[in-house]
Amino acid sequence: MVYFVATPIGNLGDISERALETLRAADAVFCEDTRHTLKLLNHFSIKKPLIACHKFNETAAAEKLCALAAEGKQIAVVSDAGTPVISDPGNLLIRALRERGIAYTLIPGACAFVAALVLSGFPADKFAFLGFLRGKTGEKKKFLEKYASFDGTLLFYSAPQDVDGDVRLMAETFGDREACAVREITKIHESIEYFRLAEGLAGEKRGEYVLAVKGAEERENPLNALSETEHIGYYVSRGMSVKEALKAAAKDRGVSKSELYKFTLKDKKE
């Protein structure tokens, strides 16, 4: 069995008993940074063989993991902090396990973006976690543009050396929205700072950040200002059949097709 084990993101007291039991019972621990994980295990007096698994060797690590699991070994997989796979190595491991029919599960626990979403107080019923912005400036902006109209809370990870540039790009792409920067989660210097994207995030940048950005405000579809007949006619004039136009207009207006049926243009071909 392979266990993906969530570890603390700051405060070591946040580790669960189940996570500790799993680490103690493991025959080997696959980890992002052996030095970092060694400190965690030493703190809890756990001694296990550590095998590096990071973005530069994940394919080879996956083969080794599957071989050990096939021998009946119990394996634990951890990242440096938080839940494995979330913006960390591990996804390739899971794909390899699935392909070979090897059993695996998650020992849940800390996750930085979930903690930041709660702490921000922004709407949490609809959100998107987008991880780190990667690539050159143009690539980042193109990526952000895909979410410019998303009306839920947007969550990003950002390193201290990148946060100012990331915020500037968000302001350029999303406009001036309310945002929240959460850093050093569960640590002594945990902070929650609210700011406007257009103004930027003030102060010296230290520690890893989670940026929460409010979603786009709902905008009234301008087609809804037309009469029902004109609305249907708009879609028909662009090549839709009356049936298709009726469906599209009903969706725009948030009503059933039957409510608009009487406005169907009889002189248009279905």
TrEMBL record:
Primary enzyme class: transferase
Localization, UniProt: Cytoplasm
CDD domains to which the protein is assigned, alphabetical: RsmI
Superkingdom of this protein's organism: Bacteria
Catalytic activity: cytidine(1402) in 16S rRNA + S-adenosyl-L-methionine = 2'-O-methylcytidine(1402) in 16S rRNA + S-adenosyl-L-homocysteine + H(+)
Keywords: Cytoplasm, Membrane, Methyltransferase, rRNA processing, S-adenosyl-L-methionine, Transferase, Transmembrane, Transmembrane helix
Entry-linked Gene3D superfamilies: Cobalt-precorrin-4 Transmethylase, Domain 1 (3.40.1010.10), Methyltransferase, Cobalt-precorrin-4 Transmethylase, Domain 2 (3.30.950.10)
InterPro entries documented for this protein: 4pyrrol_Mease, 4pyrrol_Methylase_sf, 4pyrrole_Mease_sub1, 4pyrrole_Mease_sub2, rRNA_ssu_MeTfrase_I, SAM_MeTrfase_RsmI_CS
Domain Tetrapyrrole methylase: 1-197
Cellular component annotations (GO), alphabetically ordered: cytoplasm
Keyword rRNA processing in record: yes
EC code: 2.1.1.198
Single GO term (MF): rRNA (cytosine-2'-O-)-methyltransferase activity
Listed transmembrane segments: 102-122
Function of the protein: Catalyzes the 2'-O-methylation of the ribose of cytidine 1402 (C1402) in 16S rRNA.
Family note: Belongs to the methyltransferase superfamily. RsmI family.
Name of protein: Ribosomal RNA small subunit methyltransferase I
